[in-house]
Amino acid sequence: MSEHETQPTGERDQQAQGTHRKDGEGLTQQDAPQEDGAQVSTGADAAQVPETAIPELVIISGMSGAGRSTAAKCLEDLGWFVVDNLPPALIPTMVELGARSQGNVARIAVVVDVRGRRFFDNLRESLSDLDTRGVTRRIVFLESSDDALVRRFESVRRPHPLQGDGRIVDGIAAERELLRELRGDADLVIDTSSLNVHELRAKMDAQFAGDEEPELRATVMSFGFKYGLPVDADLVVDMRFLPNPHWVPELRPFTGLNEEVSAYVFNQPGAKEFIDRYSELLQLIAAGYRREGKRYVTIAVGCTGGKHRSVATSEKLAARLASQGVETVVVHRDMGRE
Length: 338
Known about the structure:
By secondary structure, the protein is α/β, with parallel strands linked by helices. It has helices spanning 9-16, 68-77, 91-99, 123-133, 146-156, 168-178, 180-185, 197-208, 259-266, 271-291, 309-323; strands at 22-23, 56-62, 81-84, 107-111, 137-143, 188-191, 217-224, 235-238, 296-303, 327-332.
């Protein structure tokens, strides 16, 4: 596992800004259900919903620093609705809301960790409630050796969430004891002591991706070099080897979205060959990205002003990627700035 994995899950996930992720850590004690008077639907009073509408549920837990965030992000990339640090007493409510979504939320993953230790005693009651409703649920427990956990915390100079005034090893021992019973109930235990991030993602993919290969999503972005390189680009393509339509008076007012401009660009020597060969290269790169657990790639296509050649090429390249089964979005960053 990388140093990144020793950060508290909530901080990392807020930085990641996953599209399906919500964070329950902001609940105050007044907002959260208590032992008495909790307003949470349970078996007897829960709304009756068709069995096929009940979402599949995965509960992710385990030792701090063992990779909970990576496991959750992997499920998020596979299309699961991921909720981080949800109090266990609210898990049945989340499942009930998913069941009412008319199939829009078919798979839910919940991260439960020691940050919610005030509510941890509610977990067994919630699991029993879910079993009564017939919810398909699995518990994934991330394990790691004490030595590995100590190295990870020391490498980023962060305290263990349970160490208090003691040492890191004291916090690890307290957490291990707190989670002992949950570990025994886990459906899947993954020891990350000798795993890196990519290897952990591969294990999660193997368990939850099914027969489908995890998707790769691409953003193809046109830009103008005179406005600077996109800071989030993974790959950069320079189309300034082609003649500039800017110097053709009848084409200058238009953009690469115009058919005449696109035809001009791709009638130039080497333009069509470039699209063919670069598309083949992207197939090779995409396969490698999938193996390494990378699910998102930004391809920046540049020309001088980001108006003609880069726009036309981005559209053509995006269409080629889409035809190869890659989910693709096109963004024209600098079009219209001139």
